[in-house]
Write a structure and sequence with these properties.
It is a single chain. The protein is α/β, with parallel strands linked by helices and 197 residues long. It has one domain: Rossmann fold. The chain is 38% helix and 12% strand. The protein contains 7 helices and 5 strands, in the order βαααβαβααβαβ. It has a 5-stranded mixed sheet. The longest helix is centred in the C-terminal third of the chain and has 18 residues. One of its GO terms (molecular function) is hydrolase activity. It is an enzyme of class 3 (hydrolase). This is Histidine phosphatase family protein. Keywords: Coiled coil, Hydrolase. Its EC number is 3.1.3.-.
Amino acid sequence: MSNTLPRPPTTWRNRYLLMRHGHSQANQQGLIISYPDNGLHAFGLSALGQAQLDEVVAGWSWPAPTHILHSDFRRTRETAERVARHFDLAMTPEPRLRERGFGSLERQADSHYPRVWALDAEDPQHGEYGVESVASVAARLQAVIDELEEAHRDATILLVSHGDPLQILLTALGGRALSQHRQQTPLMPASVTQVGR
């Protein structure tokens, strides 16, 4: 796989709201939690994250979603639940929106992230420490977008995911080299970025 993905269509069928989960217990503890064994049932939203979601939902300034898909990790599920409840919508778990796998760095201090990101800048296909490559993350999230573009028209689709995957997706959607994903403005917890129509 190359350092870029094919550019997205010039005409979008749908609007997408890319939402990073709220501040989590993993953030609070400074831990890398990237695998289902740890992330599906533990490390949900922190008290700060719950407050962030209350504030975001109360002051929602984006188009109202018509569909909600979310990573099935607890922190993203709890984030999606708050938005879904506000808009009285069903939500769909989508495993391809999961956190990037960080290999042997799992459950280690999040101070290890910059080491991986430095390697990403050299080679978006690297798998040092057993991490999931940037190219792989980009491909699985882009596949979600591609399928939604085929399945829907004029929809506003909220995708609730994680910091690294969303920054990588935004880099791909912008047609930039995947090795540059850390040059994308970091997404804050509970933030929403609109793309598409």
